[in-house]
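Preliminary data (for renewal application), flavin-adenine dinucleotide complex.
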Amino acid sequence: MTKPAIFWFRRDLRLTDHPALDEAAADGRPVLPVFISDPALRNPSGENRLTFLAETLDWLRDATEGALVHRQGSPAVVLRELAAEVGTDTVYATDDHGPYGRGRDTAVGESLAAAGISTHYRDAVYAVPPGSVVTGGGTSYKVFTPFFKAWKSHGWLDPAGPVAADWLDGVTSEPFPSSAPTAAKLPVAGEQAAWDRAEWFLEGPVFDYSVGRDRPGVDGTSRLSPYLKWGTIHPRQLLARLGPDPAEDVFRSELAWREFYAEVLFQRPDSARASFVPKMSGIEVDSGPNTDQHFSAWCQGQTGYPIVDAGMRQLLAEGWMHNRVRMIVASFLVKDLHLDWQRGARWFMKHLVDGDLASNSHGWQWVAGTGTDASPYFRVFNPITQSRKFDPEGEYLRRWLPELAHLSNKQIHEPWTDPVGAPAGYPGPMVDHGKERKESLRRYDELKASWQ
Ligand SMILES: Cc1cc2nc3c(=O)[nH]c(=O)nc-3n(C[C@H](O)[C@H](O)[C@H](O)COP(=O)(O)OP(=O)(O)OC[C@H]3O[C@@H](n4cnc5c(N)ncnc54)[C@H](O)[C@@H]3O)c2cc1C
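Predicted structure:
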């Protein structure tokens, strides 16, 4: 009888276009699908991400006809036990290029090899595996535009169809994780839900994406990030659907930003927590009791700047925030409140349903001016002009700040200018943006002077 193979699911929770799973299931070999809750990854994840994961696993268990096994603990130990239980000596998984995953996979591979079990890491959660797109000199790109060009000419596999697997059932599972009752209002989990959203986006909004992607008040982006995070949909499946329209190319480039940041993190794992440009870490940040108060007002959406507050309240309510607003709130934390980008990044990781180490740390560093291809430090987002420009009718502000809903399109961006006074229950601006912008530039000049 053919020996089964174990398929270890991680960030590839789907059953179509799945080369690693296809290989595990080759020649009709029975496959035991397993998901391991690893405390090292589980403990730092917030409720929203864990709930979305739990719901995705429920979908995957149904989709594998109940065969999916959930176990908790150290992956090497769990996989050794399972291999002994089902009498196999092969484990397959999709390759993980993140800083933790790489170390874990090497250790698991060595530990299983000592027990006579071979591990096969295949494919990637990216269209182009990190490490593949390098400059002519063999080094990694530090600027997005040439990376994008090289990434496009490198190309990617065409997506494959559904996997035909003979699932090995009847293996004891521990209880599956459950949703947190306090989680935000999250999207529906699972491959069908991902495709429902993708089809809707690719058949219409993508053609207005060049403009729509910057309008937080309209549903103009794909909102596929949670599905991409867990591999419920693979980027090459989306790329294969894009045509030559310039707006589709903008969408293609956004998918490439995700790959660019994965590449940067692959080359510089330290940049997950530390500034990519080390000398930028010397910038003066505020300290003392006021900083906690400031941070808390930012977290709760109580800064008195409507666009910042609307974004932070969207994050609490939905575990997601529009990209334009992510940039504005991040700039406010770093350049108006003079706090560490890392503090904001941790809050994002706690709440984002799409929380992804590479995109988050480097999204923050782009705004803070400490990363690759960064917006220069002296470019400071003005929360009022950004709000006027990207939410001119105040649709986004009214949605998240009902206490401001009655204000005119002119006043809603600066409620303190209303002749009858700021609305009750809404705070006045906690800092003066013009003053803090100058203070931010002063700190940058001081830092630059210290480099000479
Ligand atoms: C401070 C900050 C933190 C961020 N943290 C995260 C994070 O933790 N996880 C995350 O997935 N994205 C993060 N982003 C990037 C971006 O905001 C989200 O990917 C996007 O808002 C998700 O919504 P969407 O799926 O509708 O995006 P769309 O506009 O539809 O884009 C499609 C996909 O392209 C990718 N993408 C788009 N923009 C970016 C970008 N700037 N950087 C990297 N990938 C991008 C995402 O996978 C996204 O799902 C962050 C950006 C900033 C400025």
